[in-house]
Amino acid sequence: MAGVKNSIIWFRKGLRLHDNPALLEACKDAKHVYPVFVLDPHFLQQSSYKVSVNRYNFLLESLEDLQRSFQARGSRLLVLRGKPEEVFPRVFQEWGITQLCFEHDTEPYAKARDAAVRALAAAAGVEVVSPVSHTLYDTDMLVARNGGSAPLTMQSFTKLVDRVGDPPAPAPDPPAAIPPPAEGMPSAAPADTGVPSWQEVGFKEPPLTIFKGGETEALARLEASFKDPKWVAGFQKPDTDPSAWERPSTTVLSPYLKFGCLSARAFHARLLEVYRAHPAHSQPPVSLRGQLLWRELFYTVGSTTPNFHRMAGNPVCKQIDWDDNPEFLAAWREARTGFPWIDAIMTQLRTWGWMHHLARHSVACFLTRGDLYVSWERGVEVFEEHLIDQDHYLNAANWMWLSASAFFSQYFRVYSPIVFGRKYDPEGRFIRKFLPVLKDMPAKYIYEPWNAPLEVQRKAGCVIGRDYPAPIVDHAVASKACIARMAAAYRRSKGEGGGDGNDSGGEGGSGGGAAAGRKKAAAAASGGVGRGKKAAAAAAGEKPATGRGKAAAIAKGDGAASGKAAGGGSKRQRTLKETLQAAASDA
DNA sequence: TATTTGTTGCAGTG
DNA sequence: CACTGCAACAAATA
């Protein structure tokens, strides 16, 4: 069909040709298609937004891959320099553009940027088409289907998507030939629109990550994982090994999902295929599909919550009295806490820009509620700079989770910076890899080298305090203190009843105490039987159930106290969901 | 209202 | 390896 329009496909995320509905729309009936990426100074080191060379180069590699893909289809990618709001009015006019297509993006910066560009397009008489393809679903639709507010738990989210049904199928591949930009357009001059190198962008140090950007690499990585369908079907996230680095125990598809080199929908569709062939497959939240649902949940909550990346003014975030401790923060950031497991992970972050999910848990818990009691917001900033898979909503959500500020509240479950890693890697291979100064430390001491006799330290060529720092805290002491401070912060937040100024009346801390007393009594009522599976099964006369729960039946059976003691708890705390709804309706 | 459940804690016991 | 105590949270469920 003869082309009748000149269109721009504006790449931002979604750096791929597969499952790209915006690209298909741009190609439809087009005379000239202009594939554009704008190197926005907002995302450069020089601006307030910090980005490591690892992630920036991952972006550049992804653009080079896109460039090759367009060249193979008789076109080329145009990398334009400048702010989108300044670039587009110029090229709209110069290229005679009638349509602008880009993938919908729900991040705060993107929303503002896209609103500005939409206004400029409208002023120039340019039609805008902006389909959803970064997430599985249109997250606004999910919110609407959930009654106007985002779900806040995986359980409720899973129910919601079950009700909504499978996400849309991936879009078909683009045509084998794409009408190229017109000849002789100054702003599209090949000499000025190539993909720059990291040096040209202004970085001084080379990227060190082992992961290469681009759609081609993403699809190859996906295929590599799916070569073993049994592994895919049986995947359970909590069972994967955070210390595996030669062959990571997870897919490492996150950076490709972040930049959209891989379509979440394409990934999801492949998973459903495998699941059909393996009916006994694992389930959300621990399955591979569950990982995509976590991403979806956090995009959904994040995009509807004000100040999601901060504590203040964030209605889902517990307000906690974190310490401002620049020394602790610097030691953590610079991998010199004196805990080899923590410092090795932080070194992996700074060199590779990627760590296993549970490794992130270790260092995040350590920085915040576990040991250092530094705000999760500082952790967000460090991860935001270094992670190649840094993703605005996921980063904030996971930090809130680990710091027990939102989504997760069992703050007394603290990761040990010594024993957690040792469970997976008793020889300390991971530590030896990323902290070579400890490579000759005997396995017995490698997670706590300060306990090695001086003679052993000398022999290993690593004397604590000289070659490697002494631990900055005593974990046993620090974690106890942190738990106590978390308990106090939780009590305060109960007393304040939600903190949006519209609270349902508080009794200033005493409510928390009463509640704690009630719980204690309830625990006592279970008569020390606890939550054991065997005891529960014996009582119920059945095989062990999944949970800790049935002990309660025993408690009832032996006539122990009814768990009603220490009353006074009639006042009910406002739930997170209610707080969020109130915040949403205020807005 | 009471009880159970929640992607991923640890130390101690038998 | 299974279980319990630790000290005890918030949401979902019954």
From TrEMBL:
Record keywords, A-Z: FAD, Flavoprotein
InterPro entries cross-referenced by the UniProt entry: Crypto/Photolyase_FAD-like_sf, Crypto/Photolyase_N_sf, Cryptochr/Photolyase_FAD-bd, Cryptochrome/DNA_photolyase_1, DNA_photolyase_N, Rossmann-like_a/b/a_fold
GO biological process: circadian regulation of gene expression; entrainment of circadian clock by photoperiod
GO MF, one example: deoxyribodipyrimidine photo-lyase activity
UniProt feature, compositional bias: Gly residues: 496-515
Feature: compositional bias, Pro residues: 167-183
Names of required cofactors: FAD
Binding site for FAD: 250-254, 291-298, 389-391
Region of interest: Disordered: 165-193, 493-587
Biased composition (Low complexity): 535-564
Pfam families documented for this protein: DNA_photolyase (PF00875), FAD_binding_7 (PF03441)
Gene Ontology CC, one term: cytoplasm
Domain Photolyase/cryptochrome alpha/beta: 5-136
Site label Electron transfer via tryptophanyl radical, positions: W322, W376, W399
Cofactor comment: Binds 1 FAD per subunit.
Family indicated by similarity: Belongs to the DNA photolyase class-1 family.
UniProt protein name: Photolyase/cryptochrome alpha/beta domain-containing protein
Organism from which the protein derives: Chlamydomonas incerta
